[in-house]
Amino acid sequence: MNEPGSRVRGFAELTLMAEDRQALASFYEEVFAMRRLSEDDDRIWVAVGDGARLGIWSPGAKEHNDRGGRHVHFAFSVTPGTLDDIVARARTAGLEPEGPVRHDGGDRSTYVTDPADNRVEAWDFYTRETEPA
Q1: What is the DSSP string of 30-52?
Q2: Residues contacting 85, CB < 8 A, separation 6+
Q3: What is the DSSP letter of 61?
Q4: What is the DSSP letter of 28?
Q5: Which residues have C-beta within 8 Å of that of residue 113, sequence separation ≥ 6?
Q6: Could you tell me the strand order of the sheet in which 52-57 lies?
Q7: Of 37, 46, 39, nearest to 14 (Cα)?
Q8: Which pTM was predicted?
Q9: Whole-angstrom Cα distance, residue 52 to residue 46?
């Protein structure tokens, strides 16, 4: 939840660097069932929910002094009850996901490493109507 007076509603986009953009985009389409939005010579965009996107960029400078970056860890907020499906999809893709892991308070996460070596978490906490007891 946002703090009172917060101007931030969530993230609009996150970009990852990848030598093989097609393989990384396919990973997110297959494991997380994301939809490809667009593709250019140096980047692919996939939808993250209704209001955000994930950019998969080739290495090198971009406009506005941007460049694809390396991320050690990031988490997607997912609908409760979907972690088992994400785990199954990851296993079908030949991966060995960790979890689902139950955290203090009852929320659950699963973790997987994408083809560009980013650690990706799928977390069901932020989508619940009420916070865990």
Answers
A1: HHH-PPEEEE-SSEEEEEETTTE
A2: none
A3: B
A4: H
A5: 95, 119, 120
A6: 13-17, 52-57, 43-48, 36-39
A7: 46
A8: 0.75
A9: 9
